[in-house]
Amino acid sequence: MYKKIVLAYSGGLDTTVIIPWLKENYAGSEIIAVCVDVGQGPETEGLERRALATGAAKCFILDVKEEFITDYIYPMVKAGAIYEGRYLLGTSIARPLIAKKLTDIALAEGADAICHGATGKGNDQIRFELTIKALAPHLGIIAPWRTWNITSREEEMQYLMDRGIEVPMKKEQSYSRDRNLWHLSHEGLELEDPRTEPDFEKLLQLSVSPENAPDTPEYISLTFERGVPAALDGRAIPPVGLMDRLNALGGKHGIGITDMVENRVVGMKSRGVYETPGGTILYFAHRSLEYLCLDKQLTAFKEVAAVKFAELVYSGEWFTPLREALSAFMDVTQQTVTGTARCKLYKGNIINAGCESPYSLYNAELSSFTTGELYNHFDAEGFINLFGLPLKVRALMKKGTA
Asked: Would you please indicate which residues are annotated as catalytic (active-site) residues?
């Protein structure tokens, strides 16, 4: 029997149920609720009162928003990591940090187990537990969704009502949502039918739909230093403030709304709608600058490495030697990614409006249709002859054996 249990607490439906469930099923255990604030906004209001009222002995609320951006989001941006070509990893990238802080509290409080509310079908159980195993393998792990007999969110609501505990949401709004500084995800209800078009008027919270975005485009410029955002429109802004501002700009113009069916780690497909307004702008601007500053071979290999980086983030393998090695590689690629990217925001679109960098590899004399001293057109003939030699040899072989 565990003496102290640290619970990953959000105040949402799952973790509101879990506190009394732990009290009933682990009698005598002290429950320590921990909310790791990665930018949930108003969701953290009143959490301590609610946690204590439902049976927790303590409640910690940890503000880690800046650490989340600088130590997790920025390395992901530098990598250009996108899962299955569309998902900007909003939930995925927050889980290692949350699990790390849960582990820190568990060690500091002398707890012997960590409990999380991730479902037995989802990715988060893997992300939480891999981090705990990597950082504190001696701690026990409790995953109620894998052991209790509750089978739906409706049954969770009934569980709370039976015990006179306030339900933290209405039935018609019982989407499974996850919010942080980087994104807001929506799953469940009608979204479980991939044939159904989302009702953005009802669903979206960070953004407007592109149809309702302003009819006038808006220009912004983002400055990077070694791949890290440094200024917006020429003004230096701290990481949290910059992310808030980009989210407001992107949301205003209906940018970063993704509706996709993805492959979960556990093997099934799931459908989600993601709002990533500021992150989408950041990725676009960063990539635009990379096109200017990275050579062909580095660009090509970095794109391959970015796919693997995204897979590691998605599957919760942040605290692994491979992810750390890939981050070291990405840091090297960013040594010349310094400069400014200008973007036009318009009705769900981001349009390149020019880039400049002291490390630009674009040479106008080489690239111009006008002949210059750096490039001799006659050199192309010999290059093509050698480059195409394998094709010529193969064609001759085929002709000779025909």
From this structure: 14, 95, 124, 176
